[in-house]
Amino acid sequence: MATLGFFDADSLRLRCRIAPSAYFSPAALSGKQFVYLVVVAAHPVEPYQFANVRSKHRSDLAKTIAEFARMTVEDSRKLLPSKFYPSWVVFTKRQKLNWLNTQLRRIWPHVDEAASELIRTIVEPILEQYRLIILSSLTFSKLTLGTVAPQFTGVTIVEEHSGPDGVTMDLEIQWDGNSNIVLDIKTRVGVGLPVRVKDIGFTWGF
């Protein structure tokens, strides 16, 4: 590992040195990690040229993305005739939401944990408030929404209710879960009556 030296561009006078320990990890210094060096030389008159180029590139990219975001289906059809569409491009009124379902599956374990605790916190005091005198307690011994996340089955743009001020959408969600909820009902005579609810399923549109 060599020490880096920085020289003056006009006189080649040494300005400073940087030891390898300042820019290499201990693993690289000990030879346990491969290191690939890239040398970048700045323009002597325009030292900020790299920053300026990157800034302009980001600005141009943002403008292009904004233009695409404003495109409608009709704009896409005008820009590219149907005979040139790839096989995976289909314009339908009902669109799938695979990307949203993928993200929902990833976060579902955390949603299940938070929702189960919220349900327990809200419902158990209500059950206790309206508990019959012959019962000693009403508590959840098990409460989980399961490992199967709900699925968004599709979204439809309602064109007749959409306009320049907004877009109206019909969203449909379906859940065929493997939830497991057990409510323990204990009587004052010592008899326990567990009530179990499992495999909840529903379809909801809004």
TrEMBL record:
<keyword id="KW-0677">Repeat</keyword>
<keyword id="KW-0812">Transmembrane</keyword>
<dbReference type="InterPro" id="IPR039010">
    <property type="entry name" value="Synaptotagmin_SMP"/>
</dbReference>
<keyword id="KW-0445">Lipid transport</keyword>
<feature type="domain" description="SMP-LTD">
    <location>
        <begin position="93"/>
        <end position="206"/>
    </location>
</feature>
<comment type="similarity">
    <text>Belongs to the synaptotagmin family.</text>
</comment>
<keyword id="KW-0106">Calcium</keyword>
<dbReference type="InterPro" id="IPR045050">
    <property type="entry name" value="Synaptotagmin_plant"/>
</dbReference>
<protein>
    <recommendedName>
        <fullName>SMP-LTD domain-containing protein</fullName>
    </recommendedName>
</protein>
<dbReference type="GO" id="GO:0008289">
    <property type="term" value="F:lipid binding"/>
</dbReference>
<dbReference type="GO" id="GO:0006869">
    <property type="term" value="P:lipid transport"/>
</dbReference>
<keyword id="KW-0479">Metal-binding</keyword>
<keyword id="KW-0813">Transport</keyword>
<keyword id="KW-0472">Membrane</keyword>
<keyword id="KW-1133">Transmembrane helix</keyword>
<keyword id="KW-0446">Lipid-binding</keyword>
<dbReference type="GO" id="GO:0016020">
    <property type="term" value="C:membrane"/>
</dbReference>
<dbReference type="GO" id="GO:0005783">
    <property type="term" value="C:endoplasmic reticulum"/>
</dbReference>
<dbReference type="GO" id="GO:0046872">
    <property type="term" value="F:metal ion binding"/>
</dbReference>
<dbReference type="InterPro" id="IPR031468">
    <property type="entry name" value="SMP_LBD"/>
</dbReference>
<dbReference type="Pfam" id="PF17047">
    <property type="entry name" value="SMP_LBD"/>
</dbReference>
